[in-house]
Automatic annotation (TrEMBL):
Organism: Agromyces soli
Superkingdom of the organism of origin: Bacteria
Protein name stated in the entry: MOSC domain-containing protein
PANTHER family: MITOCHONDRIAL AMIDOXIME REDUCING COMPONENT 1, MOLYBDOPTERIN COFACTOR SULFURASE MOSC
Domain MOSC intervals: 118-279
Pfam families in the cross-refs: MOSC, MOSC_N
Amino acid sequence: MQLTRVRIHPVKSFAGFDVPSATVLPWGLADDRRWAVVDPEGVSVTAREENALLGLVATPLADDALRLGEEHDAAGSLLVAAPREAEPVAVGHSRQGTALPAGDAADAWISARIGRPLRLVWQPDPTARTVKPDYGGRPGDSLTLADASPLLLASEASLRLLNELAASDAVERGDAVPVPLVMERFRPNLVIDGETPFAEEAWTRVRIGDVEFRVEGCCDRCVMTTIDPETLVRGKEPIRTLARHRRREGKTWFGVRLVPVLDASAGDFVAVGDALHVLG
């Protein structure tokens, strides 16, 4: 097995993109989900409520800065520096407490595109936000503004089977066969090839390249996966198919959560083409 894609999402709920390699930090991949969107009261706002967030683009720059918008669209893009000197504001991300506001220009940029008052905030210290014990967190485990774990891994073999099940179910119902789902719906950081669908759910430890990870359980999936990342239109898949074939404990499941186990003597980065070895 090998790593076929590495993806980062600089702003939580914005569009993600592929990179050839990424540095692995204790709290996740470098440049992944250190920024997020909140409302004026500090309540977290994601694509679950505002589908259009998935259509926005942010590019990480040096020193934790961001470019909001496409690089080639100079008139519509905005450079945002990491607001290290800003006064913290309360935010509704669990176990985060406060974050630093990006400022009026960034807030106006996002608000204009979503159509309601919103704020952009930055997490200055990802070591301060712990992984919940319910999600396999151990003392010292931390994460960015991601929902549950430092990284998410998904398998192409699992997605192929899911698409086959969705097509088979559609035929059974007398519906048109749906367009195959793309991996972007599930917002993984790491994508592997593999041969056996959902084999990843039985793993406890893996090594990708030189980096070891603990596998801390499956990822339960929410309504955000039903938003087409291209059209931003919400539908019934994949939740309809997952609910029929992948439902346990009242939830639907796809992908597994990872926590890095870093060795200072190894190269703490992953790259497309790295081999994946199951250690347990």
